[in-house]
Amino acid sequence: MDAALTYVSIALSAYPLVICAMRYTINEMCYSKHESPLPYVASANGLLAYVTFRGGSLTTLALGMLLTAITYRFQVIGPVPEDEDMTGKVCIVTGSSSGIGQSTAEALVRMGAHVILACRSEKKALQARSEILARCPNGKGKAEFMPLDLASFASVRAFARAFEALGLPLHVLVNNAGVMQHERLLTADGYEMTLQANYLGHFLLTQLLLPALKRTNGGARIVNISSSMHWGERRFNFEDMQGERRYSMFGAYEQSKLAQLLSTMELDRRLSGQGVTVNAVHPGTVITNVTSGFHPLVRIGERFTTPLQYAFRKPRDAGAYTAVYCAVSPEVQSMSGKYFWHCREEMRSPLVDDRETQRKLWEVTEQIVAKSASAPR
Ligand SMILES: NC(=O)c1ccc[n+]([C@@H]2O[C@H](COP(=O)([O-])OP(=O)(O)OC[C@H]3O[C@@H](n4cnc5c(N)ncnc54)[C@H](OP(=O)(O)O)[C@@H]3O)[C@@H](O)[C@H]2O)c1
To answer: Which residue ranges run through the membrane (predicted)?
Structure first.
C-alpha cells in the first residue's frame, strides 16, 4: 500500500515536470527569446517530491498533491495588465454568458470597452451582464446583450444584420462559444452540433462581420478560442466531418478545434495587409461549464472530485488571460496567424500548417455556409 502511494505521489508530482519539460524544451528550441523559471520550479518540485516520498504514507501523498497543485498554479501566467484603455472600442464576445467568455467580456468592460455579449440565452446573458457590471465599479465600459445562436445559420445572419444596423465599428471579435456533446446531436440546419456551434457558426459570423472589422480605424483583431486538444487528431477527416460513420465526443471536439485553427491560418493569409489580425488561443484547463454536455455519469463523478478540480484546473478569470492579452496587448498588435497559450506563442500541431488542408477546408466550409444562405428560414 505504502509503495503504491509512493508511486502515485511521485507520478502526480512528475506531472507538471513532464508538462513543463515538454512545453519549454520544445518551445525554447523554437522561441529561444522566451525565458521562464518554470522548468526549474518543476524540477525542484520533482526532486523534493522524490526525497520526501521515499517513506511513503498518506501524509506524503497529500503533500505531494499540494506541491503539484502549487507548481500548476505557477504555470498560470497573469493576470493580464488591465491598464490598456479600450474606451470607445467595440468588442463582440460570443458565448459570454459563462466561463472564459464571461471573464473575457468582464476584463474588456473594465478597460472601458463597449462589449456585445453575443449569447444564445437571454436570461443567462443578462445574469452575466449584471455580474460583470457589479465587478466593474469604475463605470468606464458598457455591456450589452445581443442574441446569437451559433448552431443556427439564420441566427448568425440575423445577429450580423442587427450589428450592422447599429452602425458601430468593430475593434475586437472574440469567437469563444463552444460545446462538447457526449451524444451526436443535429442542429436545425442538419449539421453535427459540435462542428456547427464551434466552427461553422463562427466561420460564417466572421465572414459577415469582416466589413465592420475592416473599416475600423487603427486595426481590428479576431481572437479564436481554440484548444490544445486539436493535437488529438492525426488528420482532418473530410470523409466523415459530421461523425455519421463514427462519433465520439472528444473526436468531434478535437476536429472542430482543428478546423478552427486551420481556418485561422487561411484567414490570416487572406486578410494580409487589410488591417485585421487573426490569432487563436488555448485557454488552458479551466473550471467552467464546458463539461455540461458530458455523459450524466461522468458529471456525477466530476462532482465528487470537485476539490481536486480546483487544484488542477484554472479559475475562469485565469482562463481568460490569454484571450484578453491577444485582444488588447500592444505586443500582439501586428502579430497574426499565431497560436497562443499562457500569453505567449505556442507550438501547434503541424497539421494546422498544411496549406492544402487549409484551402480544401475553406472551400468545403464556404460551400456549406453558401448553401445556408438560400435555405428557407
Ligand atoms: N474550459 C476549458 O478547460 C477549455 C479548454 C480549452 C478550450 N476551451 C474553449 O473555451 C471556450 C469557452 O468555453 P468555457 O470553457 O468557458 O465553457 P462554458 O462555460 O460552457 O462556456 C461556453 C459558452 O458558449 C456558449 N454556447 C454554447 N453553444 C452555443 C451556441 N450554439 N450559440 C451561442 N453560444 C453558445 C454557452 O452558452 P450557454 O451559457 O447558453 O450554454 C457559454 O456561454 C470554448 O470554445 C471551449 O471549447 C475551454
So the answer is: 6-26, 47-72
